[in-house]
């Protein structure tokens, strides 16, 4: 079965037969469990899970989407439902969850595994996962929003390696083209920013892994950096971040729809330094949130 | 030069010639830069950097070590020096920094690169880095403290792969045996917990990567899990966590001393579920902090 989550009658199914017997499952990194929380009552109606790196940003997104959907009153800040956890935050606004995933694939996988299980236990169905992130850009103006229509790992392969029992397993990085197009189509001509469909380069490091010469250690020179970034450009890469490959791979394996929408903070063909103007970065950070909010409203209006 | 950080006269040197020209370096994930902060005044006296996954835990450690060293008055909570950052926290108590690194090697590398550069710019010298973490154990009672005297990656190799310019580079996981022994020797017979020197298995995933059958997806059975954990046991692995391989590899490359000290929350030979009793976990969490505080006090007394 290509996608295990198509039957809305029985809720989200996951490809792990052990879950049927895990009546007391402790979702340790969310600070809740099947026995401590009434997961169906809390999360049974969830249709969208939005994830991003920073806890503060995802709290702000929960507030924003709550206002957009009219499910939170003015100035009502939703509570952190993972307040027992020291690792992650989790907010809910109507049918939308908003959580942080930290930096990098390993951190993101921890919270993604636990949210998938939480929604499985809750009996949620037809759930779409969207990563709302920040990234570096390649050949696009800073502040552009990239909707990933492909992703490659650090070695430019279309697979993500998961190590199980000490051995590497290559899993495909499958991107839902229909979902990417639907999100992309929510851009408007009056927007003061471009929304671009493109390939995402996913690395396990911010400095050496992204061909920066400004890390604590460096074995490459400026020419190496420039040639590599031009190579990425020539292969259609539009942005660089640190989670998409693992996110697409695990969501596909789990049978849930997912997309990745990131705003670029810099054009790596010009610089490797993130701007210091926090007002500008703050405004740019809202752009993928605005786009995803439009997408969610459209889906809900269409009766998803 | 095996270790670039041996000359206390000139401060911590790093193997990156580009840094000499980076007069405005923006340490983005710490929310500070060479121009916005007087780094020598703030951090020139730092001798120890303690890192751990959780922000709250590392705030508590800063308070604890500040009390132990007598550099903070009673009930004085040190301020978060990275308060402009949405990603990490950073506290200082006398010559000790305490920061969180999130979950997984990629997240840890981001903050480690930036702290290394920060201390290089500050002119700090003879700095020791210590990761104080939580982990799963192999064949040791839960609540034991493991001081790593070796570490292996997910494929049980003594190397950590960094991808640079799209190609994998294998870096050695070198563990400073003298430092590990010194930390281990700070245990006391009256301690209500064991302190054990042992090999650490470092994975990029908490569920599938650590042979758990309880993740959102799973392709292995209980027999596979048990056989693999017995294999780890037979190869001398005492604990499993998600940062040590990259931590040892980058610190070695950068030429700084480092150690990893973690408390086990479970014995994976018996269970894969983290206990839910937060009082017990909280007490256990303090154990590596107590050990590391003794080590730091001893070093400072010896005139490091």
What does this structure look like?
- Two copies of one chain form a homodimer.
- The first copy, chain A, is α/β, with parallel strands linked by helices and 304 residues long.
- Chain A has one domain: Nucleoside phosphorylase domain (Rossmann fold), CATH 3.40.50.
- Helices cover 31% and strands 24% of the residues of chain A.
- Chain A has helices at 39-43, 55-69, 105-122, 177-184, 222-234, 244-254, 278-301, and strands spanning 26-27, 32-33, 48-52, 90-93, 96-100, 128-137, 145-152, 159-164, 167-172, 195-202, 237-241, 257-267.
- In chain A, strand 1 (26-27) and strand 2 form a beta hairpin.
- In chain A, 54% of the residues are buried.
- Residues 1-8 of chain A have low confidence and may be disordered.
Brief descriptors of the model:
homodimer; 304 residues; alpha/beta; 24% strand; globular; disordered N terminus
């Amino acid at each position: 079965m290509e996608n295990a989550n198509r039957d809305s009658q029985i809720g989200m199914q996951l490809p792990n037969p052990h879950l049927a017997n895990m009546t007391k499952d402790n979702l340790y990194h969310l600070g809740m469990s099947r026995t401590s929380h009434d997961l169906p009552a809390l999360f049974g109606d969830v249709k969208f899970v939005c994830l991003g790196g920073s806890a503060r940003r995802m709290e702000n997104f929960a507030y924003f989407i709550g206002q957009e959907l009219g499910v939170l009153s003015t100035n009502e800040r939703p509570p952190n439902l993972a307040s027992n956890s020291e690792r992650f935050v989790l907010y809910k606004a109507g049918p939308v969850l908003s959580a942080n995933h930290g930096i990098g694939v390993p951190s993101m996988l921890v919270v993604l595994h636990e949210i998938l299980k939480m929604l499985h236990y809750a009996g949620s169905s037809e759930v779409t996962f969207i990563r709302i992130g920040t990234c570096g850009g390649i050949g696009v103006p800073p502040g552009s929003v990239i909707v990933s229509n492909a992703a490659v790992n650090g070695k430019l392969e279309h697979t993500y390696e998961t190590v199980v029992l000490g051995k590497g397993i290559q899993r495909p990085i499958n991107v839902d083209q229909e979902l990417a197009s639907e999100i992309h189509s929510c851009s408007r001509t009056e927007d003061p920013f471009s929304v671009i469909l493109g390939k995402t380069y996913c690395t396990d490091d911010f400095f050496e892994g992204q061909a920066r010469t400004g890390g604590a250690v460096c074995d490459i020179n400026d020419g190496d950096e420039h040639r590599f970034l031009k190579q990425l450009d020539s292969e259609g890469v539009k942005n660089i971040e640190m989670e998409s490959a693992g996110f697409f791979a695990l969501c596909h394996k789990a049978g849930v729809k997912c997309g990745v929408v990131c705003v670029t903070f810099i054009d790596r063909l010009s610089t490797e330094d993130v701007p210091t103007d926090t007002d500008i970065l703050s405004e740019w950070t809202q752009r993928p949130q605005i786009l995803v909010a439009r997408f969610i409203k459209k889906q809900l209006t269409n009766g998803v």
